[in-house]
Write a structure and sequence with these properties.
The chain is of the alpha+beta class. The protein is globular.
């Protein structure tokens, strides 16, 4: 599923679709809540920090197990200091600074790349247990 994220309504649509997919895949209530939180944080970051942003998520099927995978990509200003941006409590916009660090904490796999002037790419995965 692909969502162009430009406003709060887009965030809500993405969250609802992610919850539906996670439920259909058989994730527990606890893991569905984690996925919802990650999608919410990623989508809200697109609104706050990016020029244009997209959120893609899907089911990844592997022999013997499956995963929920989400990718957030934007053409925003990029993140100058990834280490600092992943630190709990760090914010460039006066928020609580829990966004990326929370996403990293609640998902099983997390990767991020960012380049000044060209944007940021975040990929996360939650394995179905």
């Amino acid at each position: 599923m692909l969502f162009e994220v430009e406003n709060d309504f887009d965030v809500l649509c993405a969250r609802n679709a992610a919850k539906h997919l996670a439920s259909k895949m058989g994730f527990s209530t606890e893991d569905r809540t984690r996925i919802d939180l990650a999608i919410s944080e990623l989508a809200n970051n697109l609104i706050r920090h990016a020029v244009q942003g997209k959120l893609i998520f899907c089911k990844q099927a592997c022999p013997g197990h499956a995963a929920f995978v989400a990718v957030s990509m934007d053409s925003g200003p990029g993140i100058n200091d990834l280490e600092q941006a992943l630190r709990l409590g760090f914010s460039t916009k006066g928020s609580l600074g829990t966004g990326l660090s929370t996403v990293k904490e609640v998902m099983d796999e997390f990767s991020i790349t960012s380049h000044a002037g060209t944007g940021t790419l975040v990929k996360v995965r939650k394995w179905l247990k």
